């Protein structure tokens, strides 16, 4: 399993040092939580753009950009220059299937992989039609917008259902799970079919980043 370490709660004054610590602990991706203050309450645009630029300057580890925004195209344009591995946007922020497909195409034209994020209250089947065109489904296991929330237990069944559908249709989508993930629940998340876990506080608040990330990658 792969680990995307969220830098949402990294303190600005120690940010460069913390990015180095995350890199040397062999995270697979830096997870960038972009919030516009409209789709979700918090606004992290300036901070996340600065962090993305700084990481790009000091690290070769890919960026995993998660857009929690209403005006998706605007923020794709802002973050594409950072050359992320993937940009994920919320299905709930699109008004139609046509718009969703246009955004998928637009992100791909920026030489970037595409993910669709889905909130806990949205049916997981909402993403099925897009699976042939995207790389990743970002399953939210908390309500988006704030770090440090508790993992929603119903997420296990949602991951299982999505995994089964992907396998039945011979698709190759990755399942990424975001929110409330820690060393206690990561094994169960892995067993139901997750390929990537997003970990923020579990890594940032730990004394030994290398130990924590290794445990997340290979849960006991």
Oligomer: single chain
Across the major sheet, the strand order is: 1-2-3-4-5-6-7-8
The domain count comes to: 1
In CATH, the topology is named TIM Barrel
Extended strand count: 8
CATH architecture: Alpha-Beta Barrel
- What's the alpha carbon Rg, rounded to whole Å? 16 Å
How far apart, in Å, are the first and last alpha carbons? Answer: 12 Å
Low-confidence stretches: none
- N to C succession of SSEs: EHEHEHEHEEHEHEHH
Alpha plus pi helix count: 8
Structural class: alpha/beta
Describe the structure.
- The chain is 35% helix and 20% strand.
- It has 220 residues and is of the alpha/beta class.
- It has a single domain, classed as Alpha-Beta Barrel (TIM Barrel).
- Helix 1 (15-24) packs across helix 2 (45-58).
- The model has no long low-confidence stretch (mean pLDDT 96).
Summarize the structure.
This protein is of the alpha/beta class and 220 residues long. The protein has a single domain, classed as Aldolase class I (TIM Barrel, Alpha-Beta Barrel).
Which keywords apply here?
8 helices, 20% strand, 220 residues, single chain, TIM Barrel, alpha/beta
Helices and strands in order:
Elements: E1 2-6, H1 15-24, E2 29-35, H2 45-58, E3 63-68, H3 72-79, E4 86-90, H4 97-109, E5 113-118, E6 136-140, H5 155-168, E7 174-178, H6 186-191, E8 196-199, H7 201-204, H8 209-217
């Amino acid at each position: 399993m792969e680990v995307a370490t969220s830098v949402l709660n990294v303190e600005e004054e120690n940010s460069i040092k913390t990015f180095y610590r995350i890199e040397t602990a062999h995270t697979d991706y830096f997870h960038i939580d972009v919030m516009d203050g409209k789709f979700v309450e918090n606004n992290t645009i300036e901070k996340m753009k600065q962090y993305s630029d700084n990481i790009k300057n000091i690290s070769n580890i890919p960026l995993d950009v998660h857009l929690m925004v209403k005006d998706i195209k605007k923020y794709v344009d802002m973050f594409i220059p950072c050359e992320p591995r993937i940009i994920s946007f919320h299905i709930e922020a699109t008004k139609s299937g046509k718009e969703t497909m246009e955004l998928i195409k637009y992100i791909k034209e920026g030489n970037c992989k595409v993910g669709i994020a889905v909130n806990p209250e949205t049916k997981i089947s909402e993403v099925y039609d897009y699976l042939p065109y995207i790389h990743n489904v970002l399953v939210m296991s908390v309500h988006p917008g704030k770090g440090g929330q508790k993992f929603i237990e119903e997420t296990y069944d949602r991951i299982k259902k999505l995994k089964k559908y992907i396998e039945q249709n011979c698709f190759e989508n990755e399942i990424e799970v975001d929110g409330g993930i820690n060393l206690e629940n990561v094994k169960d998340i892995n067993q139901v079919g997750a390929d990537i876990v997003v970990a923020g506080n579990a890594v940032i608040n730990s004394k030994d980043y290398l130990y924590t990330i290794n445990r997340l990658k290979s849960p006991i």
